[in-house]
Amino acid sequence: MDMQSRRGPRRSSEGPRNRKWIIALAVAVVAGLVVWGVAVAIRNPLTTQATSSASPTMSVAAGERPVAVFLGDSYTQGVGATSKAVRWTTLLAANEGWTEVNLGRGGTGYVSTAGVSGCGLEYCPSYPEMIAEELPVDADIAVIAGGQNDFNAWKEDSAKVTAAIDSTLSALRAELPDAKIIVVGPSTPWEVGPTVIGMSAVVQAAAASIDATFVQLIDPPVLSADLLADDGAHPNDEGHAAIAERVAAGIANR
């Protein structure tokens, strides 16, 4: 803001001294802001990098960075986050230096499809259908996540879901033979019971069969009630950050 009088600058023998004091104060303020910014980045590096992204759907500028395609359900789509910039996929892509291609569709799974109430479209295909129809063949990295929408199907016919998981991951490897594949197991903010444990184990085995990195989200559970959005089902910003951090740690440990 310009606080100078229209009559021109005030002349005083104190002028140079005041200017020196103002310059010193400005330097101190800038230095303080830099220190504060570094402290924030250290406390939450994933969130800090993501919010500096130029686009809510692309984690980094396109160019020489590897292209990472994300397949999954509403968690992958970013439901519950206050913006796409802070969903777990975009946080992870920013942290890893990837260009993000997000194909997450709410309500879908290894066998589950969805409609308007689940994904906002008349029809959203299952994971294997997405691989056959939408997968970019030039992706350097593929991240496939979820399975919680298949819990009811697992209770009805676990063999059918197991076969779908195996065939889905085999198809993903066939489509991207040279890509790094990361498989993120199913999660739940509620009790981790036999269904969740059983499905997670099957997904882990299928991931190993195609030489993919597996990241589990249930031991310890990555989500809890305080990490849910107002709908009580999807992760809030902190929940998305927790998932991103768990996956990042799983990648680093591989």
UniProtKB/TrEMBL annotation:
Pfam families: Lipase_GDSL_2
InterPro entries: GDSL_Rv0518-like, SGNH_hydro, SGNH_hydro_sf
GO MF annotations, alphabetized: hydrolase activity
Limits of the SGNH hydrolase-type esterase domain: 70-242
Membrane spanning residue stretches: 21-42
Superkingdom classification of source: Bacteria
Keywords recorded for this protein, A-Z: Hydrolase, Membrane, Transmembrane, Transmembrane helix
Cited PANTHER family: GDSL-LIKE LIPASE/ACYLHYDROLASE, PUTATIVE (AFU_ORTHOLOGUE AFUA_2G00820)-RELATED, GDSL-LIKE LIPASE_ACYLHYDROLASE, PUTATIVE (AFU_ORTHOLOGUE AFUA_2G00820)-RELATED
Name this protein carries in UniProt: SGNH/GDSL hydrolase family protein
